[in-house]
Design brief:
The complex is a heterodimer of chains A (457) and B (110). With 457 residues, chain A is mainly α. Chain A has helices at residues 2-23, 37-43, 57-83, 91-118, 156-173, 175-178, 184-207, 212-216, 224-242, 258-277, 285-313, 318-332, 341-359, 361-366, 374-392, 395-398, 404-433, 439-444, 446-451, and strands spanning 48-51, 138-139, 144-147. The longest helix of chain A is centred in the last third of the chain and has 30 residues, at 404-433. Classes of the chains: A mainly alpha (457), B mainly alpha (110).
Chain lengths: 457, 110
C-alpha cells in the first residue's frame, strides 16, 4: 500500500510540474523580423522572429551535425562506457537508466528547461516565454523563423536541440555515481527534478548573457562547470546519500566488459568534437581550433593517466587509458575556445594526472562509493580545466583575458549550489518514495529486480 | 604460487559461496591460513554436490591446488649462466622487491 502511495505521489508530482510549466507559457515574443536582417540580429536581446535569410546555412549545418554528435555521446556512448564497468547483473539497468534519462530530460527540456536556462529573466533564472518550446516558430510563407539571442545565426530550434543534448548528457553522467543500488523510479524522479532545479539555473548563470556568472566574465566555453563540475559534485552527493554497495571494499566488483567501456570511450572522444567545436555555434576558425585542442587534450590526458598508472602500479591498463582520455576531454571543455594548442596539451597532461589521483587517492580519502568515479573524473577534471582556463586563456584566441579569481568564484558557486540543491532533492525523493533497493534486490542484481530482464550469454 | 593469485582465487570462492549458499567467508584469512582454506574447500565441495553447482567445485579445486602446491624446484642451469648471473649481481644489486599487489576491483574500479 505504501509503495502504491509513493508511486502515486511521484506520478502526480511529475504531472503537476509539467502542467504548471504548460500553464506558464507566455505568448511568443513580438516579431522582430521584417526589418533589415543584419540590424535585427545585432539588436537581439531575447529570442525573436527574424527573416529567414538572417541565418547562415553553414553554421546551421554544423550545429545540426554537432547536435547529433553530442547525442551520440550519450546514446550509446555513456551507456556503453558505464555498462561495461558494472557487474553483469546490473548491465541492463545501467543502460536502461541512460536511455530513460535521455527521453525524460528531452520532454522536461521541451516543457520548461530550455526556457529557464536560455531566455532572459533575472541573474539567477530565465523566464517562461519558451516553455513548451512556445515561439520556436518557422513561418515558410512569411519568410520568418525564430532565433535565440545567444545564437542569432542559426534557427532557435537547432540551438534548443543542441543545448538539449547537453542537458541529457549531464544528467546521464550522474548514473555513474548511483549504479547497482538505486531504485529506477526514484532515479527518474530525482533526475527530472535535478534537471530543472540544478542544471537549468546553472546553465542560465553561465551561458545566458544576463546570468550572474556570465556578467562577471566567468569563462566556460562548452560546459566545464555547467556540465562536469555540476555533475561531478552532484554525483558525489548521490553516492554519499545512497551509501555504499553491499560488499564494497571487501569483495571484488568485476566489471562486465571493459571492451564495452572502450567502445563507449571512443564514441565520447569522437562526439566531443561536436560538444566543443559545436559550442562555437558557428562553422568558423574558432570551431576548428576548438576541435584541434579537444583532440590534443584527449591524447595528452590518456598518456598522462597511462604513465601515472604505469609508474605507481607497474602496469598500464585499458580502463586507465579510457579514463585518461575522458579526463583530458573534460578539462579542455571550458577552455576549448579560449586557449592555444600548446596550452591544450598542458591542460590534458595535468588533467590526466589529477583525475588519476581523483579516482584513486582522493577516492580513498573521501571513503564514498562513487561507483564509476563521476567526481574523480568529471568533478576534478572540470575543476582543473576551469581554473587552468583562467591561467591559460589567450586574448588572441578568445578575445578575452582569463582571470583565475573569476574562474575560482564560478567553480565554487557551481559546486556549492550543486551540493546543497542535490542534497535537498535527494532528501525529498527519499522521503517521498525511498532511494535505495532492498538488500535482496541488490544481491540478485537490478536487471532482474528492477526490470525482470536478463543479459543472457 | 604468488600470494596475489591465492587471494584472487579466495575472493572468487568467497563471492560464489555467498551467492550460491549464503555463507560468508573471510577472503584474506582463506588465502593466508591453510587449515581454514581446506575447511572452506570441504564445505564448497559438499554444497557443490548438494546444490548441483559445478562452479563451486571448480573453484574449490583451484583453492585446494593453490594450498597444496609445493614450491617449484629450481631448474638446472648451465654453469656458464650461473657464473654470468653471479657476476651481474656483483656489478648491479638486484632491484627492490615490488610492493605487494592490492586485489583488483576491491574498493574501486580504477
Amino acid at each position: 500500500m505504501r509503495g502504491v502511495l509513493h508511486r502515486f505521489v511521484a506520478v502526480v508530482g511529475l504531472c503537476l510540474g509539467l502542467y504548471a510549466s504548460a500553464l506558464a507559457q507566455s505568448p511568443p515574443e513580438a516579431v522582430a523580423g521584417g526589418a533589415a536582417p543584419a540590424a535585427a540580429v545585432v539588436a537581439l536581446t531575447r529570442p525573436s522572429l527574424v527573416a529567414q535569410d538572417t541565418v547562415n546555412a553553414a553554421h546551421t549545418g554544423w550545429m545540426m551535425t554537432s547536435t547529433a554528435l553530442v547525442l551520440l555521446m550519450t546514446l550509446p556512448g555513456i551507456a556503453l562506457f558505464y555498462a561495461g564497468m558494472v557487474r553483469k547483473k546490473n548491465v541492463l539497468n545501467t543502460m536502461a537508466s541512460v536511455v530513460a534519462i535521455a527521453a525524460l530530460v528531452s520532454l522536461l527540456w521541451f516543457a520548461a528547461g530550455y526556457s529557464l536556462a536560455f531566455t532572459p529573466g533575472n541573474a539567477w533564472l530565465g523566464g517562461w516565454e519558451r516553455a513548451g518550446f512556445a515561439g520556436l516558430d518557422f513561418d515558410l510563407a512569411g519568410g520568418q523563423l525564430a532565433v535565440s539571442h545567444v545564437a542569432p545565426h542559426i534557427p532557435e530550434s537547432v540551438y534548443a536541440m543542441f543545448q538539449l543534448t547537453f542537458a541529457i548528457i549531464t544528467a546521464a553522467l550522474l548514473v555513474g555515481a548511483l549504479v547497482e543500488r538505486m531504485r529506477f523510479s526514484a532515479m527518474l524522479v530525482f533526475i527530472g527534478l535535478w534537471t530543472l532545479v540544478v542544471y537549468a539555473p546553472v546553465a542560465h548563470w553561465v551561458w545566458e548573457p544576463g546570468g550572474w556568472l556570465a556578467q562577471m566574465g566567468a569563462l566556460d566555453f562548452a560546459g566545464g562547470s555547467v556540465v562536469h563540475v555540476n555533475a561531478g559534485v552532484a554525483g558525489l552527493v548521490c553516492a554519499w546519500f545512497l551509501g555504499r554497495r553491499t560488499g564494497y571494499g571487501r569483495e571484488p566488483f568485476e566489471p562486465y566488459s571493459l571492451g564495452l567501456t572502450m567502445a563507449g570511450a571512443g564514441l565520447l572522444w569522437v562526439g566531443w568534437f561536436g560538444f566543443n567545436a559545436g559550442s562555437a555555434v558557428a562553422a568558423d576558425g574558432r570551431a576548428g581550433l576548438a576541435m584541434a585542442v579537444t583532440h590534443l587534450a584527449a591524447a595528452a590526458g590518456a598518456l598522462a593517466w597511462m604513465l601515472g598508472e604505469w609508474v605507481v602500479r607497474g602496469r598500464p591498463s585499458l580502463l586507465g587509458l579510457c579514463s585518461g582520455l575522458v579526463a583530458g576531454l573534460v578539462a579542455i571543455t571550458p577552455a576549448a575556445g579560449f586557449v592555444t594548442l600548446r596550452s591544450a596539451v598542458v591542460i590534458g597532461l595535468v588533467a590526466g594526472l589529477a583525475c588519476y589521483w581523483g579516482a584513486t587517492g582522493l577516492k580513498r580519502l573521501l571513503r564514498v562509493d562513487d561507483s564509476l568515479d563521476v567526481f574523480g573524473v568529471h568533478g576534478i577534471g572540470g575543476i582543473v580545466g576551469s581554473l587552468l582556463t583562467g591561467v591559460l586563456a589567450s586574448r588572441t584566441v578568445g578575445g578575452v583575458p582569463g582571470s583565475l579569481l573569476t574562474q575560482a568564484i564560478g567553480v565554487g558557486a557551481v559546486m556549492a549550489y550543486s551540493l546543497v540543491a542535490t542534497a535537498v532533492l535527494l532528501w525529498l525523493v527519499n522521503f517521498a518514495m525511498g532511494l535505495r533497493v532492498d538488500e535482496q534486490s541488490e544481491q540478485t542484481g537490478l536487471d532482474i529486480a528492477q526490470h525482470r530482464e536478463h543479459l543472457g550469454g | 604460487m604468488p600470494d596475489s593469485d591465492k587471494l584472487a582465487i579466495a575472493a572468487h570462492l568467497h563471492v560464489l559461496l555467498r551467492r550460491k549458499t549464503g555463507r560468508v567467508t573471510d577472503t584474506e584469512w582463506m588465502a593466508a591460513n591453510a587449515e581454514y582454506a581446506l575447511e572452506i574447500v570441504r564445505f564448497a565441495r559438499l554444497r557443490a554436490q548438494e546444490d548441483n553447482a559445478p562452479e563451486l567445485a571448480e573453484w574449490a579445486d583451484r583453492l585446494d591446488q593453490a594450498v597444496h602446491q609445493a614450491p617449484t624446484p629450481a631448474a638446472r642451469k648451465p654453469l656458464l649462466d650461473v657464473a654470468t648471473q653471479a657476476v651481474r649481481q656483483r656489478l648491479a644489486p638486484p632491484p627492490p622487491p615490488p610492493p605487494p599487489e592490492v586485489p583488483r576491483y576491491v574498493g574501486g574500479i580504477r
